[in-house]
Amino acid sequence: MSVIAPPGYAAIVTAAGRGTRVGDGDPKQWRDLAGRPVLEHALDAFAGFDRVILVVHRDEMDRAIDAFAGRATIVTGGETRSASVRAALDTLSGSDVTHVLIHDGARPLVDDAVIKGVIDALQSGAPAAAPALPVTDALWRGVDGRVSDSAPRDDLFRAQTPQGFALGEISDAHGQHPQDAADDVALVVRAGIPVTITPGSEDNLKITFAEDFARAERILASRKDGTMDIRMGNGFDVHALGPGDHVTLCGVRLDHDHGLVGHSDADVGMHALTDAIYGALAKGDIGRHFPPSEADWKGADSAIFLRHAADLAREHGFRLGNADVTLICEAPKIGPHAGAMQTRLAEIMNADPGRISVKATTSERLGFTGRGEGIAALATCTLLKG
């Protein structure tokens, strides 16, 4: 289950490196891990952020657009890690973003607790925060393959990501120290900005060598045992009845002595279901994705909206558990057409019709639906991952 980021928070995922230590072949972030690229696992962790910036190598730009367009703003990285982060920060200039979490795309197993720890520190007023683990092993210095000395491990930590910052602080640090650094914490420390250490995780490994893939596979397998991410969303919509000779409900045209009034085709059932899916994903409502102020959506087929919501759910790794739509009206009669509506919704969502229900009720001639002034719809859906 992804952490839902506070308003004003963005995530940057860096994936422009070459990763040569992993051996010949694709860069490590594009290699397969449990059936999906390492980078996709890393992006999944930030599905609860409204704004995600993905930084890739120029040679992988087309590949990234094909795989992740719609999930992230994709930018071309620089010659160094710091240059890549600056390229991402530039896209946030002048936006309403106040804080940013910067994560390494080669860390595919970061969990919610690690991300939440960083956010909580920033929300408490820290200008910068980053997860780390204390060093517990003995430390040696070596020369020519032999131990030459030991080193104290007191106050030493193993740095992890995501590293979080107030946007102004990290932008200023990059401006003051444009040279490359091991990570963004190193830059803000040079700029004199205090960094709060938050809890890291042993599972939050960075894929560096070929053998790291086997360990990551074991961690993913252990997480799947008995675990599932279950989301539920609700949607409600109303449209007035006006002049016309038909209504479109759940994708099916029904003859009627009035029509539904709306910016699009006013399919009240499909709108409610679309909002239910967006709600389960914590992605707002139709108006956020398809603003009614834009002429492009005037008279649009509502299948466009529902298909977008269903595709977005799949992009975030979810499948449909079930969907239930209730239409509230005195007329037209819904029962004879419920099966066709169920089939049409399943086609649009690329889902099993057996997981979709369409039914109707009246308001006993009470209210605007009872007076025949409009039609309302209520929808509920569950999404499953795992």
TrEMBL record:
Positions marked as site (Transition state stabilizer): R21, K28, H263, T362
Binding site for a divalent metal cation: D237, H239, H271
Documented EC number(s): 2.7.7.60, 4.6.1.12
Annotated segments matching region 2-C-methyl-D-erythritol 4-phosphate cytidylyltransferase: 1-230
MF term (GO), any: 2-C-methyl-D-erythritol 4-phosphate cytidylyltransferase activity
Catalyzed reactions: 2-C-methyl-D-erythritol 4-phosphate + CTP + H(+) = 4-CDP-2-C-methyl-D-erythritol + diphosphate; 4-CDP-2-C-methyl-D-erythritol 2-phosphate = 2-C-methyl-D-erythritol 2,4-cyclic diphosphate + CMP
Pfam families: IspD (PF01128), YgbB (PF02542)
Pathway: Isoprenoid biosynthesis; isopentenyl diphosphate biosynthesis via DXP pathway; isopentenyl diphosphate from 1-deoxy-D-xylulose 5-phosphate: step 2/6; Isoprenoid biosynthesis; isopentenyl diphosphate biosynthesis via DXP pathway; isopentenyl diphosphate from 1-deoxy-D-xylulose 5-phosphate: step 4/6
Keywords (A to Z) from UniProt: Isoprene biosynthesis, Lyase, Metal-binding, Multifunctional enzyme, Nucleotidyltransferase, Transferase
Residues with site note (Positions MEP for the nucleophilic attack): R153, K206
The keyword Lyase belongs to this UniProt entry's keyword annotation: yes
Region described as 2-C-methyl-D-erythritol 2,4-cyclodiphosphate synthase: spans on this chain: 231-386
Binding site for 4-CDP-2-C-methyl-D-erythritol 2-phosphate: D237, V238, H239, H263, S264, D285, I286, G287, T361, T362, S363, E364, F368, R371
InterPro entries the UniProt entry points to: IspD (IPR001228), IspD/F (IPR026596), IspD/TarI (IPR034683), ISPD_synthase_CS (IPR018294), MECDP_synthase (IPR003526), MECDP_synthase_CS (IPR020555), MECDP_synthase_sf (IPR036571), Nucleotide-diphossugar_trans (IPR029044)
Keyword Transferase set for record: yes
Chain ranges of the 2-C-methyl-D-erythritol 2,4-cyclodiphosphate synthase domain: 230-383
Family the entry assigns: Belongs to the IspD/TarI cytidylyltransferase family. IspD subfamily. In the C-terminal section; belongs to the IspF family.
Function: Bifunctional enzyme that catalyzes the formation of 4-diphosphocytidyl-2-C-methyl-D-erythritol from CTP and 2-C-methyl-D-erythritol 4-phosphate (MEP) (IspD), and catalyzes the conversion of 4-diphosphocytidyl-2-C-methyl-D-erythritol 2-phosphate (CDP-ME2P) to 2-C-methyl-D-erythritol 2,4-cyclodiphosphate (ME-CPP) with a corresponding release of cytidine 5-monophosphate (CMP) (IspF).
Protein name: Bifunctional enzyme IspD/IspF
Organism: Paracoccus albicereus
